[in-house]
Amino acid sequence: MDDKKPVLYLVLPCYNESETIEYSSGKVRDKLNRLIEMGTISPFSKAMFVDDGSKDDTLSKLHELSASDPMFAVVALSSNRGHQNAIMAGMMVAKDHADIVVTIDADLQQDIEALDEFIARFREGNDVVYGIRNDRKSDGPLKKMTASCFYGLMHMMGADIMTNHADYRLMSKKALEMLSEYEETNLFLRGLIPTMGFNSDVVYFDVKEREYGRSKYTARKMLSLAFDGITSMSIRPLQIISLIGFIIFLISIALGIFTLVEYFKGNNIPGYTTSIFVSLLMGGVTLVSLGVMGEYIGKIYMETKHRPRYMIDSVVIKGTENEEK
Ligand code: UDP
Ligand code: MG
Asked: Hey, which residues does 74 pair with through a beta bridge?
């Protein structure tokens, strides 16, 4: 790394974050200004908010913000495409202006003070730096439980993701250019980025409670992230189905032989319970298997359409390095 100060773009996805913006933008501005003063990053660095089709006045607040200070850039998506797509949109716009991009949640639950360390790891030659949370003190019992089920399930299903890494992450321009080549519609960045094989390191940080507004990750969104994570990273569920099918096949041979023997011995078994049990079990197994296969077929269907992951409605970036040149 030469001693040119890197241009940092902080990407913050926002979905109905009206209550948080004032607080977060203030903290972000302070932090970026301090980093600029210290000479750690270029004065052309920016905080880029991505409005993920919010239904409240998030977007107009963001536009006010960028009108008042060129440090703030705004990317507006035309509809709600979810956290992963919002981050992707922000990173793809940012990579054309920045040397490094860091994604962080707009509620700033993730500790923004860790930025210095992210940049230090980048200067040491890492193209990707993952933020790993220290503990889960600030989470409620439900979130704790769902999180540990999530990571447990992911590992069991063969998707090797980093435990306790959410999407607080630094990526260099080079890594982002590479990421832009991935065209999958079902985006699961946490699983995808480690497979790219860039030099990487980790930074540990503390997670705080949300100061303003409520969590935008509904149970449904969380479940769909977990599903996407598993089905986009691994085909193990399909293999498990085959295994179950095979085991049931073996059991049915044994059962078949047993019934035949009993029949020829002249024993009339009153097998009502058994047959009800077997048919219910088989019905259940068949339906679950169909469902899992359906998930994958659905994924294939969505991928074959090659639809864009997000639609950008507008981009506001003021005072970039290229303009000044
Ligand atoms: N988010 C988003 N689109 C969505 C849901 C969430 O851009 O459809 C953003 C949200 O505004 C926040 C980040 O993703 O900046 C993380 O969401 P949240 O803080 O609600 O999740 P939690 O911290 O509770 O897991
Ligand atoms: Mg949050």
From this structure: 49, 316
Ligand closest to CA 62: 1
Is the CB–ligand 1 distance for residue 204 below 6 Å?
Answer: no
CA-proximal residue: ligand 1, atom 24 (nearest): 215
Q: Is the CB of 14 under 6 A from ligand 1?
A: yes
What is the C-alpha separation between 157 and 147, in angstroms, rounded?
15
Kindly state if the Cβ of 213 falls inside 6 Å of ligand 1. no
Q: Which atom of ligand 1 is nearest to the CA of 81?
A: 8
CA distances from 42 to 2, 7, 39, 71 (A): 13, 5, 7, 12
What are the residue ranges of helices labelled H in 38-102? 58-68, 83-94
Q: Which two tokens stand for residue 44?
A: 């052309």
Q: What is the pLDDT along the chain (325 residues), one digit of tens a residue?
A: 456 899 999 999 999 999 999 999 999 999 999 999 999 999 999 999 999 999 999 999 999 999 999 999 999 999 999 999 999 999 999 999 999 999 999 999 999 999 999 999 999 999 999 999 987 677 778 878 888 888 888 888 877 788 889 899 999 999 999 999 999 888 899 989 999 999 999 999 998 888 999 988 888 888 888 888 888 888 888 888 888 888 988 888 888 888 888 888 887 667 777 787 788 888 888 988 888 888 899 889 888 988 999 999 999 999 887 776 5
The ligand whose atoms approach the alpha carbon of 20 most closely is: 1
Compute the distance from residue 103 Cα to the ligand 2 centre, in Å. 13
Distance CA 293, CA 325 (A): 55
